[in-house]
Amino acid sequence: MCRKELFIVGAAIVIVTAVMMFFPVTGSAGSPDPPTPPILNEVLKKLDNIPPAWSQKLPAEQRFVLVLDDEAVLDKETGLVWERDVSSSGTPNWYDAIVYCTSLTKGGRNGWHLPTIEQLASQLDMSVLDSPKLPEGHPFIGVLPHAYWSATTDASNGNLALSVGFNRGLVFSFDKLALRRVWCVRGGQSHDGY
């Protein structure tokens, strides 16, 4: 955890403790679970929005949350927001895939981009025997067992870009003029930093 996250967590713990001391929780007689004060609920909601650590591993029902009018999915493991339905993205070349994502509006929001290879590969679940190799119970629509473009250029050849094949979970290099599928994302790094 970075210093900022530790500070936020520490501050939240102090606030929760202060609230509990000054506003003691009282329940009705015989109630096994006393009611939670409204202010504590607000603190808990804020704690839920602390950026995730990439080291955590969550089951799909806890990992993925529908957001932006159910047109996108928040991945609580990475903090990234993915478009939910990718069936209309087609199969453009790499250059057109970048344009497609940067001009995309989903859930009334812009700011989408082609994911880096690390971001795209974070969706893979190699324990899944079938394809696409996504976590069991995922909420995505239209993800096919095909190769999807990443924003990452192949370090050994600038004419190639990396993609992830969701049929076998492998990373491939393809000519940037080849036709591949697209899955846009919001948040995180929006291009390779190499």
Task: Summarize the model shown.
By secondary structure, this protein is of the alpha+beta class.
Q: Characteristics of this structure?
A:
194 residues, alpha+beta, Mannose-Binding Protein A, Chain A, 2 domains, four-stranded antiparallel beta sheet, three-stranded antiparallel beta sheet, 5 helices, elongated
Q: Secondary-structure blueprint of this entry?
A:
Layout: H1 3-22, H2 38-48, H3 60-63, E1 64-67, E2 72-75, E3 81-83, H4 94-102, H5 117-121, E4 147-153, E5 160-165, E6 170-175, E7 185-186
Antiparallel strand pairs: 1-2, 2-3, 3-7, 4-5, 5-6
Give a written overview of the molecule.
The protein has helices at 3-22, 38-48, 60-63, 94-102, 117-121, and strands spanning 64-67, 72-75, 81-83, 147-153, 160-165, 170-175, 185-186. With 194 residues, the protein is an alpha+beta fold. The protein folds into 2 domains: 3-48; 60-186, Mannose-Binding Protein A, Chain A (Roll), CATH 3.10.100. The strands form 2 sheets. It has a 4-stranded antiparallel sheet. A 3-stranded antiparallel sheet has the order 4-5-6. The longest helix has 20 residues, at 3-22. It is elongated and about 60 Å long.
